[in-house]
Amino acid sequence: MTIYNFRCSFKQISRIRILFCITLVLGWISSPNNMLKAEEDKVLARVANITITEKDLEARLNKIPENQKIIYETERGKEELLLEMVRLEVFYQEAVKQKLDQDSEYQAKIQRIEKGLLAAAFVKQKILKDIEIGESETRQYYQNHTDEFIEPEKIKVQSIFFLVSEKQSIDVATAKADAILKQIQNGEDFTDLSEQFSENTTPIKQDYFARGRLNPTIEDDVFRLNVGEISPILQVDDGLIIFRLEDRILPKTLLFDEVKDEIVKQLKKEKEKNAFYSTERQLFEAYNVSFKGKNQNQMAMDDKNKKPDIQGIINRISREEQQGKVSINMLEIKDYHIQISPETTVFEKNNDTNEKSSVDQLEVGQKVYVYFSGPVLQSYPPQAKAARIVIVDHRKP
Fold first, then answer.
1. What pTM was computed for the model?
2. 92: left (phi > 0), else alpha (psi -120 to 50), else beta?
3. Which of 53, 70, 75, 212 gives 332 a disulfide partner, CB atoms 3.0 to 4.6 angstroms apart?
């Protein structure tokens, strides 16, 4: 590649090139001084006393995101990239010449960038650098929390749905369902009848699922079926359904090797979070930090508590009966199955405070913040155990 002499006019600069020039600034900041080794490399361009070499161009190319790099890997692309590098240097030198680097707004921006870079470097190099999770610590957590690694019972079903609406009364739907149920009992193929007569607008997917997907009013009836058994006609809000249980996967405890990486990830996250807030509190005290109307440690903890692991609308609630009492044991939020245990605490947000509530106050349609206890199991659906739930509002979707 030969040395290029460039004449830059504003007519040549497209909007994309201007935006790309901006990205070059950050990349240029972290690049080594290219004047020191210019004599060792092939010089591609000169701007006053500054040289741009093949190594400089290659280093710049390596900083481009992979999804954009292909544009600049051709000879034409490299020439365009070199032009951008020259343009950046020309504009930079002219800006310094006109003393724009002494502008107060520019200086304030540079200071903000410097603060952000140094603060991030401190967190990475001084707080998080040496945090590791050992094999024994990981295994100990697994052994002490085996209840968190139980994959729940799952079933696979087929169904035939009969819609109840203004156009079709429940009597008509019941007559249809009765007729189809008799055909099934007489030995006709369930799959064929489902394909011909099911009136689902959104059919139930024929995959394995745990409790929480079906309407709570029929869930127990379906899960009690034996493989191959046909359910009676079951009623839901918008119609009638007949189920056949295709298969069942019994609950099982996941092996250590299956969940090891997830445990390490979660434990490391917890350690990093604790180290971060511990260092924050120490430094707040060392630097005499104060907030109007609040203690600095309380502010730090408030900030920590504002970050839920997941937030969203409760789609479904699953209940189970234990010792004659029916209680909530599972929530579905954004495809997550959130396990509820006796240790789970529930609060209701009231203006700026959280008031103690109870699990019984959880309802479908509420917006909630959920704080996890232990790792998230990346099965389908993802599963996590709730340590704390905050009800944000009671509006229904």
1. 0.54
2. alpha
3. 212
Give dist(CA 68, CA 221) in Å, integer: 54
Q: Which two tokens stand for residue 160?
A: 């035939």
Q: How many angstroms from the chain centroid is the CA of residue 76?
A: 39
- Long-range Cβ contacts of 35-42 (<8 Å, 24+ apart): 42/1
Residue 69 parent element (H or E): helix 66-69
Find tokens 């460039």 and name the residue.
6
Cβ atoms of 351 and 383 closer than 8 Å: no
> What is the CB neighbour count within 10 angstroms for residue 281?
16
Distance CA 173, CA 182 (A): 14
pLDDT digits (tens, 9 = 90+) for 357-396: 888 889 888 889 998 877 676 666 677 888 889 998 765 4
For residues 248 and 77, give the distance between their C-alpha atoms in angstroms, rounded to a whole number.
57
pLDDT tens for 79-90 read: 999 999 999 999
**What one-letter code names the amino acid at 5?**
N
Taking a C-beta distance cutoff of 8 angstroms, is the pair 391, 348 a contact? yes
Q: What span, in angstroms and rounded, lies between the C-alpha atoms of 147 and 341? A: 11
The Cα–Cα gap between 339 and 189 comes to 38
